[in-house]
Amino acid sequence: MKALVTGISGFVGSHMAEFLLQRNVEVIGTIRHRSRMDHIKHLNDIRLVECELRDPFSVENLIQEIKPDLIFHLAAQSFVPTSWNSPIDTIHNNVAGQVNIMEALRRFDLPAKMQIACSSEEYGHVEPHETPILETNPLRPLSPYAVSKVAQDYLGYQYHKSYGLHIIATRTFNHTGPRRGENFVTSNFAKQIAQIEKGKKSPVLHVGNLTAKRDFTDVRDVVRAYWLALEKGRPGETYNIASGTCCTIREMLDLLLSYSNVKISIQEDPARLRPSDVEILLGDYSKFHAETGWKPEIPFETTMKDLLQYWRDQP
Ligand code: GDD
């Protein structure tokens, strides 16, 4: 069994690679010339291929040479605020890369199964009475990033219907854990706390909107879900991957602070507020559970302790 992981050097990609290696799957990952390798330097048994997913020739060569059985398409511009600063780049990056892979699969008539990392951000504006969110909820995206994920989602559906490609879209709600990029809220707050503890930062923690509600799952549960999506999911379908519970960002921060003994004050930083924020994401994963048996196993408290420890261990 040969698996191609796009974006293998990223947060989810590195955990996906670890999961696949534990199952004795041959792992090939795409990197770009400027990719940071910190997250995968401990993985000796993976093969890395330099590939610019936006370049059709680069992708065609990759797919023709590797002929993967499984594709986990994780590479993306995934930070919502960046998508307001660079909307075209976000749309192009996220959409073109996927189209190039699907076109190559179609051209070489390969039977690979492909998972697409879509997002709960696609639901965007959600009224409280519309929760927990089902796959049938309306999509009301609130950022260029969210629109790019809607496009990825529907392109997967369209390539399945038009050409019979085996494509499954996972709409994953927020996920975190060790190696989470420091821009994302859980990691950003954990890093600030770790730096304050080490005396590298004054005891003031900068925050954005603390009233938003998010549904967090551990990244190690998420990569297991991606595996099951290809093993048991139906092509052309979309599945929510979520914990089924949510908390405010303030509650998440309070949990992190409860793991630390230092005294920290909280300060709002206007630069961290967004033109429009998704106020509530609370997912219903019953469709995915019914078809694959998946459910999250790692408690949120464990995830957040592991994340804080990750930052405490950084030099
Ligand atoms: N990043 C960040 N930094 N977010 C903050 C901060 C801060 O200092 N303070 C409050 N927030 C709030 C944001 O306004 C948002 O409501 C929430 O914390 C989560 O922000 P992020 O961690 O940046 O994640 P996201 O919800 O925008 O998007 C993440 O989840 C999606 C799935 O729902 C990303 O991982 C996306 O790639 C993913 O698709």
Automatic annotation (TrEMBL):
<comment type="similarity">
    <text>Belongs to the NAD(P)-dependent epimerase/dehydratase family. GDP-mannose 4,6-dehydratase subfamily.</text>
</comment>
<protein>
    <recommendedName>
        <fullName>GDP-mannose 4,6-dehydratase</fullName>
        <ecNumber>4.2.1.47</ecNumber>
    </recommendedName>
</protein>
<keyword id="KW-0456">Lyase</keyword>
<dbReference type="Pfam" id="PF16363">
    <property type="entry name" value="GDP_Man_Dehyd"/>
</dbReference>
<dbReference type="InterPro" id="IPR036291">
    <property type="entry name" value="NAD(P)-bd_dom_sf"/>
</dbReference>
<dbReference type="InterPro" id="IPR006368">
    <property type="entry name" value="GDP_Man_deHydtase"/>
</dbReference>
<feature type="domain" description="NAD(P)-binding">
    <location>
        <begin position="4"/>
        <end position="306"/>
    </location>
</feature>
<dbReference type="InterPro" id="IPR016040">
    <property type="entry name" value="NAD(P)-bd_dom"/>
</dbReference>
